[in-house]
C-alpha cells in the first residue's frame, strides 16, 4: 500500500472486521484463483496518493475473468478488450472533451496518476464468480478510504462520481458535504442510455474544480495521440 494511505488507514488493519477479512482471503487464495493478483490489490493507493486525489470514481466488484482486474475500477490491461462500461466512459469523455481521442487500451493508470481515484467497494473477487467477496469486510475498509479523503487536513474539495444506485447510496450514507457529487445511471451497456450518456460529468467536474480550486483533471492523459498544437486541458464551454 502507498505510504500516504497506509498512514491514514493504519488503525483499520487492527480492527476485528479486517482480521476476519484477512482470514477469509487466506482461505480463498488456498482454494481458488483470486483477482486481482496480490501486488495489485492496493495499486490504486500507489498510483493516486491521498493528497493528490481530485476525484473518486467508484465501482463495485473487480472484473473476475483472466487478465482483467489490476486494482483500478473499470480498468483493464492490454490486450484485454474494452469492457462495455469503459467504452461508454470513453464515449462520454469524447463528448465532453472534443479533442479527446478514444484509446484502444483500457488501462486507466494515466488517469490514476492524474488524481482520479478509481476505487472498487470490494477489492478482490474469486475468479469467474462475481460478488463472491462482497460483505466480507471490504466495504467497511473502502468506506474508511473515502472518509480518509473527506478528512484530509487541507480540506480540499473532491468530485465524487456517483454512477448507479449503489454508489449513490454509499455517498448518501457517508454524508458527503462541501464536495461535488455527480449522479447518473451506471455506464453499463444495460443502463448507460438512461442518463449516463449525455451527463457531461467530466466537463462538470473540471468546471467545478477550476472554480473552487483553480485546477482541473487532465482527462487528456488518456488520449493516445494529443492533437498537434492543441492544449491538454481544452474543454467545451
UniProtKB/TrEMBL annotation:
Q: What is its main location?
A: mitochondrion
State the Gene Ontology BP annotations: base-excision repair, AP site formation via deaminated base removal
Q: Which organism is it from?
A: Suillus subaureus
Protein name (Swiss-Prot/TrEMBL) = Uracil-DNA glycosylase
Where do the coiled-coil regions begin and end? none
| Encoding gene, per UniProt annotation | UNG1
EC no. given is 3.2.2.27
Question: Which compartments is it annotated to reside in?
Answer: Mitochondrion; Nucleus
The reaction(s) annotated as catalysed by this protein in its Swiss-Prot or TrEMBL entry are: Hydrolyzes single-stranded DNA or mismatched double-stranded DNA and polynucleotides, releasing free uracil
- List GO terms (cellular component aspect): mitochondrion; nucleus
What keywords are assigned to this protein? DNA damage, DNA repair, Hydrolase, Mitochondrion, Nucleus
Amino acid at each position: 500500500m502507498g505510504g500516504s494511505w497506509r498512514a491514514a488507514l493504519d488503525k483499520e488493519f487492527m480492527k476485528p472486521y479486517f482480521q476476519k477479512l484477512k482470514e477469509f482471503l487466506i482461505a480463498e487464495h488456498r482454494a481458488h484463483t483470486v483477482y486481482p493478483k496480490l501486488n495489485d490489490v492496493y495499486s490504486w493507493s500507489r498510483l493516486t496518493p491521498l493528497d493528490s486525489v481530485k476525484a473518486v470514481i467508484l465501482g463495485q466488484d473487480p472484473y473476475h475473468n483472466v487478465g482483467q482486474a489490476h486494482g483500478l475500477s473499470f480498468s483493464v490491461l492490454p490486450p484485454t478488450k474494452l469492457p462495455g462500461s469503459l467504452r461508454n466512459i470513453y464515449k462520454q469523455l469524447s463528448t465532453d472533451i472534443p479533442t479527446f481521442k478514444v484509446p484502444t487500451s483500457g488501462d486507466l493508470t494515466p488517469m490514476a496518476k492524474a488524481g482520479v481515484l478509481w476505487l472498487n467497494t470490494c477489492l478482490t473477487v474469486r475468479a469467474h464468480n462475481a460478488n463472491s467477496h462482497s460483505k466480507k469486510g471490504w466495504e467497511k475498509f473502502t468506506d474508511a478510504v473515502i472518509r480518509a479523503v473527506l478528512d484530509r487536513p487541507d480540506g480540499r474539495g473532491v468530485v465524487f462520481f456517483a454512477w448507479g444506485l449503489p454508489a449513490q447510496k454509499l455517498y448518501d450514507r457517508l454524508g458527503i458535504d462541501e464536495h461535488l457529487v455527480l449522479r447518473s445511471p451506471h455506464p453499463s451497456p444495460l443502463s448507460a442510455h438512461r442518463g449516463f450518456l449525455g451527463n457531461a460529468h467530466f466537463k462538470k467536474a473540471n468546471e467545478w474544480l477550476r472554480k473552487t480550486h483553480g485546477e482541473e483533471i487532465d482527462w487528456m492523459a488518456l488520449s493516445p495521440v494529443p492533437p498537434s498544437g492543441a492544449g491538454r486541458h481544452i474543454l467545451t464551454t
